[in-house]
Every structure is written in C-alpha cells, then in structure tokens.
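Q: I'm building a small set of examples for a reading group on sequence design. Run inverse folding on the following structure and report the sequence directly after it, with nothing in between.
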C-alpha cells in the first residue's frame, strides 16, 4: 500500500510542478502575442486552478497524510512533512489570492484592448509569484527526497 500511495503522491506533485513550469514558460511568451491568444491563455491558467492544481494538491495532501499515518519511520513532526504542508497551504493561497484574480483581470484587460502599461504590473505579479511557487515546489522536492528532519 505504501508504494501505491507514494506513486500517487509523486504523480500529484509531478502534475503540480509540470503545470507550474509550463505556466512560467508560456505566460511571458503568450503576453507578446495577439491579445485574443493572451486572454485565452490566461483564462485557461485560471481554469487550471480548479481542474488541475486543486486535484493535484488534494492528491498530494491526502496521500501525504496517509503516508505519514502509515509510516513507522517518520511522523507529522518531521521537517519535510511540515514543509510539505506549508507549501500546499501557500500554493492554495497563491492560487486563490494571486493567480486566479490576477489572471482573470489580465484576461479582461486584454479583451478590452488595454495597453501594456496597464498589463505590466499584473504580469509582473504573476511572474514573481509564479517563480516563488516554483521555487517552493523545488524546495519541497529536496526536503522530501532528503527526508529532512526524519
């Protein structure tokens, strides 16, 4: 059972990390294209929050809790477990407070024909928090692989 849970846990993390990498690479590229393409991409990334990131994060959280409960080697007090929980919480906050609202706002601005001066601060926020999200995901991978504090 442990191996099955671990596979699900890793697959959930892979989806989350993969989507974050794609978003970080594609968003600046799409921004330079036609407004209709940028708006469509941004609306898709907002939708990723509910159809991709949320299920992946829930899978990571549920399997992570289950793995800890089933473990004879580490508990909820292990640093890597705490880091994992923190990153899930931070990811949820970023999705609900930054990525969703800012992506929707940028899509609406593109659709209304706004100029780059109005869009630049939003893209700056999206890219800054996107880099933070990705850095935290890389950190949690190192913490998990190294089983920090176990």
């Amino acid at each position: 059972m442990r191996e099955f849970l671990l596979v699900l846990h890793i697959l959930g993390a892979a989806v989350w990390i993969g989507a974050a990498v794609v978003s970080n690479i594609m968003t600046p590229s799409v921004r330079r294209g036609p407004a209709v393409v940028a708006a469509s991409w941004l609306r898709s990334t907002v939708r990723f929050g509910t159809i991709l990131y949320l299920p992946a994060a829930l899978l990571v959280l549920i399997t992570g809790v289950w793995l800890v409960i089933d473990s004879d080697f580490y508990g909820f007090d292990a640093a890597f477990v705490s880091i994992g929980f923190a990153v899930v919480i931070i990811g949820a906050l970023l999705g609900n407070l930054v990525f969703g609202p800012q992506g929707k706002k940028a899509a609406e601005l593109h659709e209304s024909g706004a100029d780059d001066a109005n869009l630049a601060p939003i893209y700056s926020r999206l890219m800054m928090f996107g880099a933070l999200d990705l850095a935290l995901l890389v950190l949690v991978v190192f913490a998990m692989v190294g089983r920090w504090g176990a």
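The chain is about 85% helix and 0% strand.
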